[in-house]
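COURSE: Structural Biology Practicum
ASSIGNMENT: Worksheet 4, Part C
STUDENT ID: 0417
INSTRUCTIONS: Below are two proteins. For each, the amino acid sequence is given first, followed by its structure token string. Answer the questions at the end about the second protein only.

PROTEIN I
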Amino acid sequence: MKRTTKGVLCSLLAATLLAGCGGNNGGNAGNANSTTGNNTVSPEAKSVTLKMFIAMPRFKEHFDKYIADFVAKEKADKNIDVSVQLEMPTADNASQILKTRLASNDAPDIFAIHAVNEIPSYYKAGYLEDLSDQPFVGKLLDSVRPSVTTADGKIVALPMETLSWGYLYNKKIFTDLGLTPPTTLTEMKAVVEKMKANNITPFVLSYKESWIPQLVIPLTIGAMVKSKDPDFVSKMNKDEGSFMEMKSAIFDIFDLINANGTTKATEVGGDDGAAAFAAGKGAMWLQGPWYAETILKSNPDMDFGVAPLPVNDDPKATVINMSASTSLAVSSTSKNKEVALDFVNYVLDDQATNAFFQALKFNPVSTIHTYESYPWVDDALVYVKEGKSVQDPAIPPSVKDEVGKGLQAYYAGQMSQDDVLKALDKVWKSYNKVNK
């Protein structure tokens, strides 16, 4: 997911001095008190500025609070004054900004990356600290741990978002019209027609941010890998495949959505799309449950579900996409590695993590996450338990970037279907040349 950049600086500085005894912590300022006569003198606190890069601006309020709690804890436990510079660009250009920083030796201490799509290349480039021996690792669910594990067995990030997704639908509208989520493209067309007959707009469209229209690609490729072409990604990695093989699967559903959606799609971003969906301006939205918190902030009573997107008339191709996306990594070149590692471990702190993840509306990723799952998670799990799911296909980030731009241009009538697909083939081949 990629969005337009806007950096946000958040400086949080603990001001309280701690008095009392404590052991020396590695290179930290000594925690043992010194005495002069009857006066106890507290040691001077060590000061650290920690830079974080997390492209999730809609969660700024939650991260600000959690970081403030961490700052206070680090002061109390280790007598370290931590200032945090938190940059939260939208995702459209975040990946490119981060790559530029890393390549120019201006790496944030902690940064968010996509587990499936970005860990392999970032690890190969030497940007990721090995976190295998960190305390949080033993708390990860067995089903989640592989998503942040490299081919040679190292754990290099802490997973935050695990996803089971397809598209979102308004349960009340479906129930009122006597509808159930369709299992084929033909059934989806019938659902669309019944909604239109009842003066309901079938889809919310929000293409201002290029990462949103590109969502149709992992859903489509996943569907075809599951049902018809299990070797598609492997063939593309060997320059032996082509997106032309996916033409009908991609554009039959994408065209149906575009022809039956809200207006001015290229002027509507994710947050506005969430507000429109929450207000019932469209019954379905090509989007994932990572927008749950934003939707419910607009309409706390909103009853929505998650369903797999049909791309053709083969029910076996109608599957839930399962993935781990946003994950926190520590820069291998960080000069504040100790504090950076402390924060990453604090994300799965035994006392604090449940409230944090629940506020974000994220799925549990740890054995210590004890909060109840959400209704939309249960919706997706019904399909998963029936075998109607697929692991998120490993599509190069550069290809996803090109997909988003290409589909924006296609929607605007500036590119043909073949133009988009040829551009994707070209970008994937370029990726292969660099990453052989």
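PROTEIN II
(use this one for the questions)
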Amino acid sequence: MKLSKKAITALSFTLGASLFISTAFADTLLGSGYDRLKGSAKNTAAQMEKGLNNYTIDALLTLKGNDQILFQTTISKKIDTTKQASEETTVTQDSEGKSSSNYSYSDKKQSVWKNGVDNKYHVTEYPDDAARGSRSLFTNPFNEKGAPEIEKIVDAVVGGLKDYVQVEERPDGGKAYSGSLSEAQVPAVVNAVSSYGIQQMIRDQSRMEKNAKMTDIESDIFVKKVVGTAVENKAGILENVTGDIFLSGKDKNGAQHDLTINVVVKLSGVGNTKIALPDLTGASVETVNQSGGLTSKYVGTYKNNIIMEKDGKLVKIGERTFEITSVENGKVAGKYYETVKPGFEANYPDKYNFNFEYNPSSTKSLSSFTYKNAKGEQENGQVHENGPGKIYVDLNIEIMNNNSYRSSNRPDFDGQFSRVFEE
């Protein structure tokens, strides 16, 4: 099941910003309030994974530069742990004000996914043996590998800053947390991390979004202020968390620029969230075989063009080639590479070139292959048939669980490939 399609913009950029905000916001939750809130966060995550029957999570991430929106994404996800079902809608707005949306639905027997580009529903039905058993629809981050070590680092960064949090008992039995750090109170390590993280996020966004109105901040990046609030109900569950980070930095010409990152996360609908399979009557629907639907007849070479706009015209600057070299005993092998014409290398950096082999199993609801990207990092990909003489390829996907993944193809990547036939 594809949960997101817009890419690195909504995935790596969002996750990177969220990670940075989490670190900085943690530094505002100090002293006894810090310990109490951390305990509440752990309890909330544990209940979301195993405890709450159903609930809704809404999240908003906004990046502004000089008071103009450079990037914004909203996510609304419904989870029903009893029925083993989930539903998610994501809307992303870029620096030009253009929006894109994705929708997904999943239960133990099937998944449905649609993006705003082709307006087509992609439906995958799982075999009975893949549908049995329960699966985690939410992963507790405090149980992830390395989480205890990260927690110790955050605790150490907090250090002696113990007096900047306020904890207020609410009339309903819950608690309200608030805290802020000024420029002088922000630890040096946070400024060091922010300098690197913000530069990476801006560069990734600029590379992925053509004509992005992103300022290339290069130096003297520092956190001017951090403000955070959190609301905990009487059951010890966080219902609302907000964070604002105000930063400043200079571009290559020495001009000063201000950036603001805002994150809002809300947990609601506990016990009364309803999830329903979307009505596909009259809709454009494509059925996707859960194991890719590939047989020996798909052995061959598939290509599509790498295209860019130049001087008001569409220009072919290269080709993407996906070769399926063998499909034997259920195993699929092949290679993928990209070629760019001389003079256009800077317009299409980080070209992919890899071999792959994997075994799409009919007993699994999700099959994928691994490969190395241009940086030598291991990533996951998926390929399936997409009509006569056509295949569809997803690269840079994040496996969420046995039945779902997040797709993060670059905006300039075309996953539709056509077979090259000998004349």
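ANSWER KEY EXCERPT:
Q1: The chain has a mean pLDDT of 77.
Q2: DSSP finds six helices and 21 strands in the chain.
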